[in-house]
Each structure stands twice: as structure tokens, then as C-alpha cells.
Amino acid sequence: MTEPTLREVLASRTATYQLLSRLFRVEVDQECYDELLSMSFPANTGNAKVDAGYASIRRYLASPHPSPLTELAVDYTRTFIGGGNNGYSAAYPFESVYTSPKRLLMQGARDEVLVAYRSAGIDKKPSWKEGEDHIALELEFMQILGMRALDALCAGDEDAAADHIECQKGFLVNHVGAWFPMMAADMRKFSKTDFYQGLADLTAGFLETDREFLCDVLEDDEPAESFDEAVVIDL
Questions:
Q1: pLDDT tens, residue by residue, 67-110
Q2: 54: alpha, beta or left? (left if phi > 0; alpha if psi -120 to 50)
Q3: 14 phi and psi angles, rounded to 5 deg
Q4: 53-68: buried (b, 16+ CB within 10 Å) or exposed (e) per residue?
Q5: CA-closest candidate to residue 96, choices 85, 77, 109
Q6: Does the chain have fewer CB atoms within 10 Å around its N or its C terminus?
Q7: d(CA 178, CA 96)
Q8: pTM of the model
Q9: Distance CA 27, CA 71 (A)
Q10: Which residues contact 111 (CB under 8 A, 6 or more apart)?
Q11: 3-state secondary structure of 27
């Protein structure tokens, strides 16, 4: 089997970020559930957390549930919203909660990611009422940067592609990849379904793998000549 090109890996990474962002943004609806049922999840990616996450999600989808959408909606609320207001009653999906001393919303992390978004010419949609440091928005930001890198590479602009990849690495290292492991631990604590248990493992493992991938690509001294021969990871 031939190794995938960097373009193929960028496309795969972008699709994964899009899926993860969707699963954290709102509860699973019928359209999303049907799409998940139609997907083929890999069994051996080389990352134990990713494999465990896919296995848990696959197990949930393959098991009979009288009302899966209701069950998942209840678990989404239990996992991410909880029933308390002290910052310790759920896996609150905001960077500020995990990086501020008192686990409060709208703290310094929110301001930092807002600067990152605006520096990239991106602003949240008016319909989005949550903070900018929500995990779904941070994952979507990674998706957008990945798509920009892919588009630049397809257009033959390797320097622009490298700039977008560098931006991705910085945001992953300084933001989403730095705090999500703590949120993942809380997800495992509060969620009751294999689905959200699996989402915790899948996301944590994918972010680890993606950091390795980004570092491998950016360590190359001659990206314009070697992008399509870069070391790639099967995601």
C-alpha cells in the first residue's frame, strides 16, 4: 500500500476536525446520527486513544437503543452542561474553565483565541451565543486553517501552505491541545454512554497525533520540494 500524500493527509485531518467540531457543538440529531451510522471507522490508527475512541463510538452505534437521540441528548447535557454552577459539575467545553484559577468563563483564554481568530480574518457567526473559547470553535478554527493549507498546496503555493500549517501548530500547542486533555478526563468522569466516552478518547488521541504530524512536516528544511513526500500518519 502506498503512503498517502500530504494533500490526502491534509484532507483527512480537515474532515476529522470538522466531524469533531460538529459532535461538540450541539447534540446529535437524526441527520448526524445517520451519517455516523454510514461511516467506516478505522480499527488500527497507531494511536491507542484514537483506536479506543473509535471502538467505543462504533460499539454504541452498533448496539440497540430504543431512543438513541434522546439518550445522547441527555448524556450531552449531563456531560457538558451538568447540574451545578461551581465549575466542577461537568466537562464544561471552554478553555477558560480549564486555564483560570477559579474555573470561570470568559477569562484570558477567551481573549487570546479571539485575537487568533481575528488575526486569521475569522469571526464567529452571530447565531453563536457561547464564548469563543468553546471546544467546538477551536476545533473548527483548526479545520479552517487545514483547509486553507490544502487549498494553498493545491494551488502550488507551498509557502502559504507552510504558513497555515505553522499557524495550526501554534494554536494546537498553545490552546486546544494544551487544555483538552483536562476536559477529556472530565468527560470520562461525567458521561455515561460509550459515545461520549469514545469522543473523549478519540479527540485526545487525534490531537496528540496531529501535533506529531505538524511537527514532522514543519521540521523539513525544504517544504516546497518535499511536501508530497513528507512523513504522514494514518489518521
A1: 999 999 999 999 999 876 666 899 999 999 999 887 777 777 89
A2: alpha
A3: -60, -40
A4: bbbbbbebbeeeeeeb
A5: 109
A6: N
A7: 12
A8: 0.90
A9: 10
A10: none
A11: coil
